[in-house]
């Protein structure tokens, strides 16, 4: 694919981009129906990420180095940034043309368990931050035998957190340190969505079954997207508040490990990316009460050379189909919808971070959506031998990306994390 990418519709362009369309178009998401509406099963395009064309539209520049396993990025209204480091520090970056990483981390953080995939994960600011200075952090607590994701809010006073309050604890606790999810997204009513992982891969078990089965259980927060008020209270219009035995915080379920979550402020659509198991990574459009299928239906297979099937079917009545599937995996991380950016041609598209494409380098994936929210094309934005962990649009309209090195990215003392700024190529 040569030259500038423009907005296109139709599978002709998808085919020219190297999308491997297995068996036809995506099932339409029927946004007009009640949350529990059944969506007819339909085929979903499966993409081989490495076969995607590389974007020629981007100029990239490292603006901050020496971060230690960065995970989440949030802009303050003044253009400064908060960056979480997985091992448990919150860093302050002065924004502007030449961003500066302050040497001293933010003080007053609670104790975090940093082990395996767990640690200090996402950060977001309250929609009214300018008035209340509230920030939110997600992190893992506990030990090898019993740990879980916790959400706190606190006021940022200068460079110190004060009035730290726990507002949500995932239940049940789980063993081992896999699949925490933990990404935030705000809704316009100032409720907060948080993605929670399924608890891990076999042989990790809970209640006599592989823990992944928790994703289908409404009495568990594992494998869910949850929704709470800004102080942790449960919204009375959550989809399962009146369902006996169900956790009232649940917004959607049947997720494996969603580490990308973003709302389009123009269309109101909510998108999530989740890791599959050896392939089967998904982009989903999230609706209240819907079941996204894991592990009943997935394009992923068990880890290992045998590639044992996890589900006999990839789609089923009553289960939401993904908008896009990546096999092999991209290992999707942070997610953002392109609005108010310097990339005019990308307006309304979705950027998905990829930790690891085909066992090689990570990249950003730009997913071109048409006005109906259907995937009509994808391309790679390569940043070299890095894992892409988070992506945000800055107040200056540029794209900001957190990366780590491919190897040793979360070993203590490995300050190979970077903040990149992407600008439109001339
Ligand atoms: Ca799914």
Secondary-structure blueprint:
Layout: H1 11-16, E1 46-47, E2 58-67, E3 70-75, E4 81-85, E5 89-94, E6 100-101, E7 120-125, H2 129-132, E8 134-142, E9 147-157, E10 160-169, E11 184-186, E12 191-196, E13 205-206, E14 209-210, E15 224-229, E16 250-253, E17 258-263, E18 270-274, E19 281-285, E20 324-326, E21 332-337, E22 350-354, E23 363-369, E24 375-382, E25 386-393, E26 399-405, E27 417-424
Parallel strand pairs: 1-20
Antiparallel strand pairs: 2-27, 3-4, 4-5, 5-6, 7-8, 8-9, 9-10, 11-12, 12-15, 13-14, 15-16, 17-18, 18-19, 19-20, 21-22, 22-23, 23-24, 25-26, 26-27
Descriptors for this entry?
single chain, Neuraminidase, globular, disordered N terminus, 426 residues, four-stranded antiparallel sheet, binds calcium ion, five-stranded mixed sheet, mainly beta
Q: What's the quick description here?
A:
This protein has 426 residues and is mainly beta. Helices cover 2% and strands 37% of the residues. The protein has a single domain, classed as 6 Propeller (Neuraminidase), CATH 2.120.10.
Number of strands: 27
Let me know the CATH homologous superfamily: TolB, C-terminal domain
Q: Major sheet, described briefly?
A: 5 strands, mixed
- CATH-assigned fold name: Neuraminidase
Q: What fraction of residues sit in β-strands?
A: 35-45%
Bound molecule types: calcium ion
Number of helices: 2
Question: What order do the strands of the largest sheet run in, or round the barrel if closed?
Answer: 1-20-19-18-17
Poorly predicted ranges: 1-41
Q: Can you give the mean pLDDT? A: 88
> What is the helix fraction of residues, given as a range?
under 10%
State the shape. Answer: globular
Structural class: mainly beta
Domain tally: 1
Rg from Cα: 20 Å
């Amino acid at each position: 694919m040569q030259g500038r990418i423009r907005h296109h519709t139709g599978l002709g362009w998808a085919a020219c981009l190297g999308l491997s369309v297995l068996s036809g178009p995506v099932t339409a998401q029927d946004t007009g129906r009640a949350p529990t509406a059944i969506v007819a099963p339909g085929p979903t395009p499966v993409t081989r990420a490495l076969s995607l064309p590389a974007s020629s539209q981007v100029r990239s520049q490292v603006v901050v180095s020496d971060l230690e396993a960065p995970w989440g990025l949030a802009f303050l209204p003044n253009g400064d940034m908060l960056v979480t480091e997985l091992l448990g520090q919150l860093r302050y970056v002065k924004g502007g043309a030449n961003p500066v990483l302050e040497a001293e981390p933010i003080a007053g953080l609670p104790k975090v368990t940093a082990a395996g995939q767990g640690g200090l994960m996402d950060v977001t600011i309250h929609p009214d931050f300018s008035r209340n200075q509230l920030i939110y952090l997600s992190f893992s607590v506990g030990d090898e035998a019993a740990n879980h994701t916790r959400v706190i809010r606190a006021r940022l006073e200068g460079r110190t957190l004060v009035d730290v309050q726990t507002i949500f604890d995932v239940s049940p606790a789980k063993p081992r340190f896999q699949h925490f999810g933990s990404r935030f997204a705000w809704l316009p009513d100032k409720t907060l969505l948080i993605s929670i992982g399924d608890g891990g891969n076999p042989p990790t078990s809970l209640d006599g079954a592989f823990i992944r089965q928790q994703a289908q259980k409404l009495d568990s927060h594992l494998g869910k997207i949850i929704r709470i008020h800004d102080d942790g209270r449960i919204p009375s219009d959550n989809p399962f508040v009146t369902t006996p035995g169900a956790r009232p915080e649940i917004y959607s379920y049947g997720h494996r490990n969603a580490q990308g979550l973003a709302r389009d402020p123009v269309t109101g659509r909510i998108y999530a990316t989740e890791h599959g198991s050896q392939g089967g990574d998904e982009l989903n459009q999230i609706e209240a009460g819907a079941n996204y299928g894991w592990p009943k239906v997935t394009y992923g297979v068990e880890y290992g050379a045998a590639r044992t099937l996890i589900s006999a079917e990839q789609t089923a009545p009553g289960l939401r189909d993904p908008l896009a599937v990546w096999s092999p995996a991209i290992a999707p991380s942070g997610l953002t919808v392109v609005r108010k950016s310097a990339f005019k041609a990308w307006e309304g598209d979705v950027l998905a971070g990829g930790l690891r494409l085909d066992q090689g380098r990570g990249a950003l994936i730009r997913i071109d959506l048409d006005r109906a929210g259907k995937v009509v094309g994808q391309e790679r934005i390569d940043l070299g031998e890095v894992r892409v962990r988070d992506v945000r649009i800055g107040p200056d309209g540029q794209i900001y990306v957190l990366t780590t090195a491919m190897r040793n990215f979360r070993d203590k003392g490995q300050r190979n994390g970077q903040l990149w700024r992407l600008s439109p190529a001339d």
